[in-house]
Design brief:
The chain has one domain (about 10-115). It contains 4 helices and 8 strands. The chain has helices spanning about 25-35, 50-55, 90-95, 105-115, and strands at about 10, 15-20, 40, 45, 60, 70, 75, 80. Strand 3 and strand 4 (about 45) form a beta hairpin.
Length: about 120
């Protein structure tokens, strides 16, 4: 039987914030307020909020989304990261917690760790 995996946000400092599937936006809003996170996007001339804010700050989103299913294959929807490199703390957290991940998450995580993200 396949593990469900993990869902939540992993900060640059290696802190993992768990949430339920499809609750990432709600958690992002909570973290923005609770951690007093702010980032002004100079190009768009706006403050970023929720998911866009966490992504821009280099958080990693872990999900078990089935929305990426294409022809019986999943389209990298299990670990979303828009930065250039994982932080040392993120890499260490992923290595330590890889057994808690689903097989899809483990596969994607290993590939990205090997490629040097």
């Amino acid at each position: 039987m396949e593990k469900i995996g993990i869902c939540g946000w992993l900060s640059r400092e290696g802190d993992f914030y768990r949430c339920g599937e499809s609750k990432h936006n709600l958690l992002a809003s909570h973290l923005e307020k609770g951690l007093d996170l702010k980032l002004f996007d100079e190009e768009k001339q706006i403050y970023l909020h929720d998911t866009a804010l966490l992504e821009a700050l280099g958080y990693v989103k872990f999900t078990e989304s089935k929305y990426g299913l294409e022809n019986e294959y999943y389209n990298n929807q299990f670990l979303l990261f828009f930065g250039t490199r994982f932080s040392y703390a993120q890499r260490k957290w992923m290595e330590k917690n890889i057994t808690k991940m689903s097989s899809f998450q483990r596969s994607e995580c290993r590939q990205r760790l090997i490629l040097g993200h």
